[in-house]
What does this fold into?
Amino acid sequence: MKQSRGAKCIVFPTPVFVVGTYGGEGKPNMMTAAWGGICCSRPPSVAVSLRAATYSHSNIKAREAFTISIPSEAYVVEADYAGIASGRDVDKFAVTGLTPVRSELVDAPYVAEFPMVLECKLAHIVEVGLHTMFVGEILDVKGEDTVFDENGHLDIAKVQPLLWAPDGRGYYGVGEFRGEAFQIGRELIVKGA
Amino acid sequence: MKQSRGAKCIVFPTPVFVVGTYGGEGKPNMMTAAWGGICCSRPPSVAVSLRAATYSHSNIKAREAFTISIPSEAYVVEADYAGIASGRDVDKFAVTGLTPVRSELVDAPYVAEFPMVLECKLAHIVEVGLHTMFVGEILDVKGEDTVFDENGHLDIAKVQPLLWAPDGRGYYGVGEFRGEAFQIGRELIVKGA
It folds into this structure.
């Protein structure tokens, strides 16, 4: 029997995106956001939603660029902090000791210590309500050379990303492998044919 | 040292959303999509991106509504199948044996057997490229009475949702708890003050 939880923002899982931007005078900033995800395959695009009140919001508008760095589990404290503090008040890179790296492709910094990063050029702005959705075209995805598998793919088990659960508000790691996509469902195609 | 993986759609994790719609003559359909996520807190909104070629794409446009059912790990085969087969050709509910339930709030069905569901009214359509992004206002989130925690919150550990990893293309479960959001980062606020 299903019970109502109301008109709330709850999906499982949400990602933990650390959005990198430059502010005034080139101050690097990072901000954690869970409202986002891939939104198009061609051009490869990712969406992230931010409130207009945030420092990152105005930074993206001004520079028309952002990065998304994916923290590994080891950086859960830093990732959470980057979602609490505002870059208007503090230098979050200085406080955390993390290192901003200037992207060579877009006008935004990413986090050197995080295992994986997307470099994005602003493509669309959608005003949804309290949040503005920024759609970025993904110009490159980079990974530490330690997080690739034997086929040259980025390996989630090596990246060890965080995921977030709204409502309960916990961060979690990635669990066990449960199957290969576009493959394990094929047994039902035979049945349905 | 970071290596380039190219301009690709890779973030970790992506969700496994099973999108419920009605087709012509009220045929219920479900389609699995990983390109999506929450995109606004007020009004509570979720985005899901689909190719124009899909049955679900035209269904959402016609009915201006969709649901997102979140499969538990136990339904990984059915979830994968729903992303491979097309509702134009088969009745995916009949093939899988899953049960469509008519939403009382929007003109779309959800999956009875899945532990959690969002009922969404179409709010925005954004043409990003190969994919169209459908932004839905979340009118309700429902969960099985077995997946709530003692505080009345939906519990990710009880829902046991799947997550998906592009590039390697594996499905995974949820791993261990790593910390409480808006809490564990506070130690750095003291440091930064």
Remarks:
- Chain A is about 20% helix and 45% strand.
- The helical segments of chain A are 55-63, 76-84, 92-96, 156-159, 186-192.
- The two ends of chain A are 32 Å apart (CA to CA).
- Chain A has a mean pLDDT of 97.
